[in-house]
Structure formats: C-alpha cells, structure tokens
Amino acid sequence: MSVEPHPDGGAPVDGYGFAPNLPVSPVARGTSLVVRGSAEADPSALAMRLLAPVTERDVGALLVETDDTQRGVTARWAAGTNVPRSRLAVVDCNGERRDSPDGLGGAGYVSRPSDLTGIGIKCAEVARSFVDGPRGRLRVGLDSVSTLLLYCDDVQAVYRFLHAFTGRIRTSGRLGVFVFNPEVHDPRVARVTSRPFDAAVDVRVGERGQREVRVDGVPGQTPAWTPL
C-alpha cells in the first residue's frame, strides 16, 4: 500500500498519525497493522497507544476485546492514553456481560471469541452508532488474534475472518490494529494469519530490559529496532 506524503513532509494527506513518542510513521487510510510480540513485551499495551486518536479528525477507537472486560479495557485505556473514554467503544467477547462503564463511547457483547460471525456483526453495529457516516475516521482494534486461534482451532476460518475484516477496514478508510503473539503458535500458523495485514509492528524486550519496536511494511520507515 502506498502512502501519499504531505506537501510539507509531514503526515500522509488524510492518513493516520500516532503520538510523537511512538516510533511509528503515519500510514494511509485503510491500513491494517499487526502488532506482534510475546506476553512479556506486552503488544496489547502498544496496540492501545496506536489506537488512541491524536487529532480531532479521528472520531475515536473501537476495540474488539477477547480476554478482558469492558471495565478492564477502560482502565487500561485511561492508564495508557490521555484520550477520554467517550472516544472509545468496546466489543466484549469474553462472555461475561456486565454493565458498561459510565461515559464509554459505545459497547457491544459477543458470547465467545469463537463466534467470528457474531464478532463481525456486532463490530459493524457498534461502528455505525459510533461514527457519523460510512467513511468516518475510526481506529479499529482486535486484541487478540491469538485468542481467536485458541478458541476456534481452525486456522483457515480465522484467516478468512481476518481477510474480510481487513477488507472492510480498507474500503471504509479506517485504521486496523491487530494484536498477535507469534511465540504461542506454529511458524506456519503465524505466517498464514499475518497475510491479511499491510504492515507489522514488532515489539520485544531488549538486552537491557527496555522495550523496543521495529516497523516493517510502512513506506518510508526502515525496519530497525528502536527504543520505545
């Protein structure tokens, strides 16, 4: 995917940028990123920061969460960003339906992570209520692909789901951020499930205990490990 540079050398025209303290270059609308790393490296925390809107043009973020509750996600959002919860919507797939936190921008429930059709339908419903118009600027996350694989036990079904999901992100001009832990899967599974994504953001814990990030597939950014 090509990114149209801004005339003054800044962010892509009408693209998605990130906080200045994140070593990730701006990307074009419709881009889907996979954030890969071990549990120790905490790719979920990095994904949360990538989902945080940085301009008023971004209406907010929608996170499909397979492991945590809406209250847990809201607490992590407050700890990792300075964006109000009114700009966050959560589709909770862990099967524990509870009252949504006050002030949350949108909410939805799916009975279990293996219900891929239900996830797609509920995500579309929440997005429609959260965004003004079909091409509203929305950041969409899924945490995590690894949990989908664990519950579905069908790599091809998850691949088809991701292919369709990223396709909708592409046509709607949104940003996709997907969390994946390749260390808990066979290398073949990791390769197959990474195919639908446009670029990868890898995170690791370096020799000195500091988290580092490497971006691969974003035009204009060299894939080298950088301190986070």
Condensed summary:
The chain has 228 residues and is α/β, with parallel strands linked by helices. 30% of the residues lie in helices and 21% in strands.
What does this structure look like?
This is Recombinase RecA. InterPro entries: DUF7504. It holds the Pfam family DUF7504. Helix content is 30%, strand content 21%. Mean pLDDT is 89; it is low at 1-11. The chain has a nine-stranded mixed beta sheet, with helices on both faces. It has helices at residues 43-51, 70-80, 116-130, 145-152, 155-172, 187-194; strands at residues 32-36, 60-65, 88-92, 106-109, 138-143, 175-180, 199-205, 211-216, 226-227. 40% of the residues are buried. It has one domain (32-227): 3-Layer(aba) Sandwich (Rossmann fold). With 228 residues, it is an alpha/beta fold. It has six helices and nine strands; from the N terminus they run βαβαββαβααβαβββ.
CATH structural fold name: Rossmann fold
The counted number of beta strands is 9
- Output the CATH homologous superfamily: P-loop containing nucleotide triphosphate hydrolases
Based on CA inertia axes, which overall geometry fits?
Answer: globular
Q: Count of DSSP helices?
A: 6
Catalogue the unreliable spans: 1-11
SSE run: EHEHEEHEHHEHEEE
| Average of the residue pLDDT scores | 89
What summary fits the major beta sheet? 9 strands, mixed
The proportion of strand residues reads: 15-25%
What is the strand arrangement across the widest sheet? Answer: 4-3-2-5-6-1-7-8-9
CATH architecture name = 3-Layer(aba) Sandwich
Protein name: Recombinase RecA
Pfam families: DUF7504
InterPro entries: DUF7504
